[in-house]
Design a protein that fits this description.
Blueprint: H1 2-11, H2 62-70, H3 76-90, H4 99-105, H5 128-141, H6 146-150, H7 152-155, H8 160-167, H9 169-190, H10 200-212, H11 223-236, H12 265-275, H13 290-301, E1 309-310, E2 313-314, H14 318-329, H15 342-351, E3 355-356, E4 375-378, E5 381-385, E6 396-400, E7 410-414, E8 421-422, E9 425-426, E10 428-431
Helix pairs in contact: 2-3, 2-9, 3-10, 3-11, 5-9, 8-9, 10-11, 12-14
Length: 433
């Protein structure tokens, strides 16, 4: 065993150089929780696993899988911009290593423990501390998948299609889904401006200039990224990518737990469409949908809780929106019966027997378990999981209070919050009894 280990380390010296550019470091708010994600001691890739990602990955070719994952939460134009960049960064291999860095730092260097090293890893060639956080995220959710990240000699220099062939479809699907989930959390936490891009060129340029940041982060210096993005957009926008049967284990897992029979999920989802804008609007955005404004006015007249007001518009408040939605839909008519703020609401759900879905309050939830009507709490914030609603551009709905309309205020809308970590704390999810 020792001999094999020495051979593996020494052989890294002769790896060919030349790789995608590394990503510069950035401060990500959710970084401190890198080692608190759910750990599954069974180490299984079966449907019984407790770490499935909420990103949908399907299709045959590697680019189809990534496209499907990206369009789980991005517009086709935005997905194309990301995909065009990822093609240049990693060749679409989720286990890709920056080969020139392997040559430089091996043997005898722990690639996954030094946040000061500009070393690219994964689809986006995350570097510096972002690489460490990515590795920790995957290790915490699916520790057996780190085998493919660690074995850089076998998997680290392949193209995406070659990795798919060598590692198998189950492994590729799982790694892609987890890395795209991580990418989504970074975009939401630190690069929210990306969600405001409207064209393929805008998306490609923003992702290059803000997320990837090579030595010369301009499209004029990297024109191939836009060409690739436009090709992907032409190929996949409006097309139907079909799921394939996994070659080494079925990852098309469905949630085996049934919906709580006492709740009217249909009424909840219908009211979401009436109350919340179906697309995300970056703050400040204080225009309320007419149905929500009317409901809030009636509740105010009846002395019911609606949360705070922003410039005279009531109900632009996370806890006020969740309370109004729960009560008015009939899903949980007594929700927040005492009319308290966000902290009081979490105390209320605990006192009234709502189930904490996290393993504990410091461990990220297994997102595959979430169901419509589940409520999330972070420091000073709450939002609701609404599931798949046709025409609604998110699986969560949220609002945000601010003392001034020019700061963080958002009327109810399709949310972009991370399902696992936000506001410097783990997102705690509760389900009604």
């Amino acid at each position: 065993m020792l001999k094999k280990l020495l051979v593996a380390l020494l052989s890294g010296i002769i790896l060919l150089s030349g790789s995608a550019s590394a990503i510069s470091d950035a401060v990500i708010d959710h970084a401190d929780a890198v080692d608190t994600y759910y750990y599954n001691p069974e180490g299984s890739l079966k449907c019984t696993s407790n770490y499935a990602s909420d990103i949908s990955v399907y299709g045959g070719a590697i680019e189809e899988k990534i496209w499907a994952g990206l369009t789980s939460f991005l517009t086709p134009e935005q997905a194309a911009g990301v995909l065009g960049n990822l093609q240049s960064e990693s060749g679409l291999n989720p286990a890709r290593h920056e080969t020139s860095a392997i040559n430089k730092y091996q043997p005898g260097f722990d690639l996954m423990s030094s946040p000061k090293v500009a070393y690219g890893l994964g689809l986006g060639q995350w570097s510096y501390s972002r690489r460490i956080r990515l590795y920790g995220f995957i290790k915490g959710r699916a520790p057996e998948l780190t085998t493919y990240l660690d074995d850089y000699q076998t998997y680290g220099r392949l193209s995406g299609s070659a990795f798919l062939e060598k590692a198998g479809e189950s492994v590729a699907d799982q790694l892609i889904s987890l890395e795209i989930e991580y990418l989504r959390d970074e975009l939401t936490s630190a690069y929210s401006g990306f969600f405001q891009t409207n064209t393929v060129e805008e998306a490609t340029a923003y992702f290059l200039e803000h997320f990837e940041v090579p030595k010369n982060p301009t499209l004029s210096a990297h024109p191939e990224r836009l060409t690739q993005a436009e090709t992907f957009y032409t190929r996949y926008s409006g097309s139907s990518i079909k799921a394939t049967t996994s070659k080494s284990g079925d990852l098309n897992c469905t949630n085996s737990s049934s919906l709580n029979s006492t709740g009217d999920v249909g009424s909840l989802q219908s009211l979401v469409l009436e109350y919340a804008w179906d697309h995300y609007h970056q703050a400040p955005f204080t225009e309320r949908k007419p149905a929500y404004a009317e409901a809030v006015a009636k509740r105010v007249a009846n002395g019911q809780y609606v949360g705070g007001s922003v410039d005279g518009a009531a109900g632009i408040d996370c806890g006020g929106f969740v309370t109004t939605l729960m009560q008015e839909s009939g899903f949980a008519p007594n929700y927040n019966a005492d009319g308290g703020n966000t902290a009081a609401q979490e105390s209320w759900v605990k006192a009234n027997g709502w189930q904490l879905l996290n393993a504990n309050e410091h461990t990220a939830v297994n997102t595959s378990l979430l169901q419509p009507g589940d409520v999330a709490f972070t420091t000073g914030h709450t939002f609701v999981y609404v599931g798949d609603i046709p025409g609604f551009d998110s699986k969560i709905a949220s609002a945000s209070y601010s003392s001034s309309a020019d700061e963080y205020a958002r009327a109810p809308m399709a949310g972009r919050e991370s399902l696992t970590y936000g506001n410097n704390t783990t997102v705690r999810w509760y389900r009604k009894p």
